[in-house]
TrEMBL record:
This is SpoIIAA-like protein. The lineage of its organism: Bacteria, Bacillati, Actinomycetota, Actinomycetes, Micromonosporales. InterPro entries: SpoIIAA-like (IPR021866), SpoIIAA-like_sf (IPR038396), STAS_dom_sf (IPR036513). It holds the Pfam family SpoIIAA-like.
Amino acid sequence: MLEPLDDLPAGVIGFRAVGELHTSDYRDVLGPAIDQVVAEGGDVRIVLVFEKFDGVSGGAAWQDLKLGLDHLTRWKRIALVTDVDWMIHLVSLFGWMTPGDMRHFPLAERAQAVTWAAG
Protein backbone atom coordinates (compact mmCIF):
# COMPACT_ATOMS: atom_id res chain seq x y z
CA MET A 1 0.00 0.00 0.00
CA LEU A 2 1.18 3.54 -0.73
CA GLU A 3 0.58 6.31 1.79
CA PRO A 4 1.04 9.95 0.73
CA LEU A 5 3.78 11.91 2.50
CA ASP A 6 2.81 15.22 4.07
CA ASP A 7 4.76 18.48 4.34
CA LEU A 8 6.56 18.28 1.01
CA PRO A 9 7.61 21.40 -0.85
CA ALA A 10 5.60 22.61 -3.81
CA GLY A 11 6.29 20.55 -6.89
CA VAL A 12 7.29 17.39 -5.00
CA ILE A 13 5.04 14.38 -4.42
CA GLY A 14 5.92 11.52 -2.13
CA PHE A 15 4.75 8.19 -0.81
CA ARG A 16 5.67 5.65 1.82
CA ALA A 17 5.29 1.99 0.93
CA VAL A 18 3.62 -0.16 3.57
CA GLY A 19 3.24 -3.90 3.07
CA GLU A 20 2.92 -5.31 -0.43
CA LEU A 21 2.29 -3.07 -3.44
CA HIS A 22 -0.67 -3.91 -5.66
CA THR A 23 -2.08 -2.74 -8.98
CA SER A 24 -4.53 -0.49 -7.13
CA ASP A 25 -1.62 1.44 -5.55
CA TYR A 26 -0.48 2.48 -9.00
CA ARG A 27 -3.93 2.89 -10.52
CA ASP A 28 -5.61 4.72 -7.62
CA VAL A 29 -2.78 6.49 -5.76
CA LEU A 30 0.47 6.98 -7.67
CA GLY A 31 -0.94 7.27 -11.19
CA PRO A 32 -3.45 10.03 -10.41
CA ALA A 33 -0.81 12.01 -8.47
CA ILE A 34 1.60 11.86 -11.41
CA ASP A 35 -1.16 12.61 -13.92
CA GLN A 36 -2.06 15.74 -11.91
CA VAL A 37 1.55 16.97 -11.92
CA VAL A 38 1.76 16.48 -15.68
CA ALA A 39 -1.67 18.07 -16.31
CA GLU A 40 -0.49 21.15 -14.40
CA GLY A 41 2.55 21.36 -16.67
CA GLY A 42 5.09 20.23 -14.08
CA ASP A 43 7.85 17.67 -14.08
CA VAL A 44 7.62 14.65 -11.81
CA ARG A 45 9.74 15.05 -8.68
CA ILE A 46 9.00 12.22 -6.31
CA VAL A 47 10.19 10.83 -2.99
CA LEU A 48 9.55 7.14 -2.36
CA VAL A 49 10.16 5.79 1.16
CA PHE A 50 10.61 2.06 1.76
CA GLU A 51 11.32 1.27 5.42
CA LYS A 52 10.98 -2.38 4.44
CA PHE A 53 9.69 -4.13 1.36
CA ASP A 54 7.07 -6.87 1.43
CA GLY A 55 6.90 -7.39 -2.31
CA VAL A 56 4.93 -6.37 -5.35
CA SER A 57 2.19 -8.20 -7.20
CA GLY A 58 2.68 -9.09 -10.86
CA GLY A 59 0.04 -6.58 -11.89
CA ALA A 60 1.74 -3.87 -9.88
CA ALA A 61 5.07 -4.55 -11.57
CA TRP A 62 3.38 -4.09 -14.95
CA GLN A 63 1.70 -0.86 -13.79
CA ASP A 64 5.06 0.44 -12.56
CA LEU A 65 6.62 -0.06 -15.99
CA LYS A 66 3.59 1.41 -17.75
CA LEU A 67 3.52 4.46 -15.46
CA GLY A 68 7.17 5.16 -16.16
CA LEU A 69 6.65 5.00 -19.91
CA ASP A 70 3.38 6.97 -19.99
CA HIS A 71 5.12 10.24 -19.08
CA LEU A 72 8.66 9.31 -20.07
CA THR A 73 9.88 12.85 -20.71
CA ARG A 74 8.25 14.36 -17.59
CA TRP A 75 10.25 12.47 -14.95
CA LYS A 76 12.77 14.84 -13.38
CA ARG A 77 13.95 13.37 -10.06
CA ILE A 78 13.21 10.18 -8.13
CA ALA A 79 14.54 10.01 -4.58
CA LEU A 80 14.46 6.46 -3.22
CA VAL A 81 14.70 6.53 0.57
CA THR A 82 15.51 3.10 1.98
CA ASP A 83 17.96 0.96 3.91
CA VAL A 84 16.83 -2.22 2.12
CA ASP A 85 20.10 -3.61 0.74
CA TRP A 86 18.84 -5.17 -2.49
CA MET A 87 16.95 -1.98 -3.43
CA ILE A 88 20.13 0.06 -2.90
CA HIS A 89 22.08 -2.31 -5.15
CA LEU A 90 19.34 -2.25 -7.76
CA VAL A 91 19.49 1.55 -7.92
CA SER A 92 23.27 1.50 -8.23
CA LEU A 93 23.11 -1.00 -11.08
CA PHE A 94 20.00 0.05 -12.97
CA GLY A 95 19.14 3.56 -11.79
CA TRP A 96 20.49 4.94 -15.06
CA MET A 97 17.68 3.15 -16.87
CA THR A 98 14.93 5.04 -15.06
CA PRO A 99 13.48 8.15 -16.64
CA GLY A 100 14.92 11.30 -15.07
CA ASP A 101 17.54 11.29 -12.32
CA MET A 102 17.30 8.65 -9.61
CA ARG A 103 19.23 8.74 -6.37
CA HIS A 104 19.28 6.61 -3.22
CA PHE A 105 19.16 8.10 0.28
CA PRO A 106 19.33 6.21 3.58
CA LEU A 107 16.25 6.46 5.81
CA ALA A 108 18.18 8.79 8.14
CA GLU A 109 18.59 11.26 5.25
CA ARG A 110 14.92 11.59 4.28
CA ALA A 111 15.03 15.40 4.62
CA GLN A 112 18.01 15.57 2.24
CA ALA A 113 16.11 13.37 -0.21
CA VAL A 114 13.20 15.81 -0.21
CA THR A 115 15.56 18.76 -0.72
CA TRP A 116 17.30 17.00 -3.61
CA ALA A 117 14.00 16.04 -5.26
CA ALA A 118 12.82 19.65 -5.05
CA GLY A 119 16.07 21.00 -6.56
